[in-house]
Amino acid sequence: MHTTAGIVPAWKEIALESLNAPQQKLLEAAASVVGPLYRVGAPTELEAELQAEAGSQLRLTEPTPDPAARAALRVERRELCRQRNIEQILHLALRELPDQASSDPVERAWLTKFFAYAQDADDKPRQEVWARLLAAEVAAPQSVGSRTLALFAQMDEWEIEGFATCCAFSFAFESGWRFMLEDELAEKEIMNYQQGNNMTQHCVDLGLLSPEIDGMRCLSSRGMRVRYAAKVYELAKPREDKADAVLAYRRYTRAGQQLAEALRPKKFYGFARNVLKSLDQLRGVRLDLVEDGSGG
User: Fold this and answer.
1) 3-state secondary structure 189-211
2) What span, in angstroms and rounded, lies between the C-alpha atoms of 58 and 200?
3) At what angle do helices 108-118 and 146-154 cross, to 10 degrees?
4) Which of 30, 117, 267, 296 is the most exposed place for a label (fewest CB within 10 A)?
5) For position 194, what pLDDT does the model report?
6) Measuring CA to CA, how many Å separate 40 from each of 2, 9, 10, 14, 93?
7) Bridge partners of 172?
8) Quick one: what percent of the chain has pLDDT higher than 70?
9) In the predicted model, is pLDDT for residue 9 greater than 50?
10) 130 & 195 share domain
11) Does residue 213 share a domain with residue 89?
12) Looking at beta carbons, which pairs linking 47-54 to residues 24 or more positions away fall under 8 Å?
């Protein structure tokens, strides 16, 4: 049996007040995740907060020198935070469910993966996305893939924001499947709205956008409808001088489609209006507005 007898914890000789600012920052950051570290001196503000949350289970003013006891506190603190995150996500998911849902059960294996990935999400924006993914799966089992869960769990905050920006400029086919217009005119218009670098290639690298560019001949595909938010456009017959006009686009992957639905990005109607006008004038790709549910 493993024993900690004879081990002298290094923290016993440390007083936080004797450390410089970077050293204090390191230990306070670690304590916020792994729990309090045994040391001499009064508890820090952060430790006092943890003590208040956990009640009598944390004895920071009478710390134990036993590493096993500190490990138990660390696990308890971690699982307490995870439990709170899970309960908050469940609370948010209740509000995302539709009035009607499939009677098919949600696979236990999927739920196990979901909570394993989502349990460490402690900021509300990320929790809201997890809640929408959960609600979508409950409403229609097998609509959210395990790869989508794994991908979202690994994304940094700037990647989530960047993908949400891409989603704000995406159109959708009548099936609901999203796509990005693949044209320098669209890219130029996006950069008029977007601050920073174009995230398209990074989203391709992440597996959110297809690496292949597709295209459809406008002449043979006339009548096809696409949507931008509440507005629906219909592909019209091109001018005679642009008979070979092609609408180039990049599809979302399955994971990208599912995650885009959960992000619910804002829309820029001015973007759609301007880019479609440019495509008509310069490329011969004409999409006529046939439905306008935007109210403007």
Assistant:
1) HHHHHCCCCCCHHHHHHHCCECC
2) 48
3) 0
4) 296
5) 73
6) 27, 12, 11, 6, 44
7) 178, 227
8) 76
9) no
10) no
11) no
12) 50/77, 53/80, 54/80
Angle subtended at Cα 144 by Cα 138 and Cα 146, rounded to the nearest 5 degrees: 115
Tokens of 268: 């820029």
CA 17 to CA 162: how far, in whole Å?
41
Say if 70 falls within a structural domain: no
* Structural domain that includes position 46: 17-65
Mean model confidence pLDDT for the chain: 83
Global confidence as pTM: 0.78
Residues 6+ apart with CB under 8 A from 108: none
Considering the domain architecture, whether residues 286 and 237 belong to the same structural domain is answered as yes
Closest by CA to 268, choosing from 198, 171, 132, is: 171
Q: What is the pLDDT, as a whole number, of residue 193?
A: 80
**pLDDT higher than threshold 80 for residue 263:** yes
φ/ψ of 136, rounded to 5, equals -65, -40
Domain end call among 154, 173, 191: 154
Sequential DSSP letters for 262-288 = HH-----HHHHHHHHHHIIIII---EE
What does the pLDDT average to over 229-257?
A: 94
65-96 tens-digit pLDDT: 567 777 787 788 889 889 999 999 999 998 89
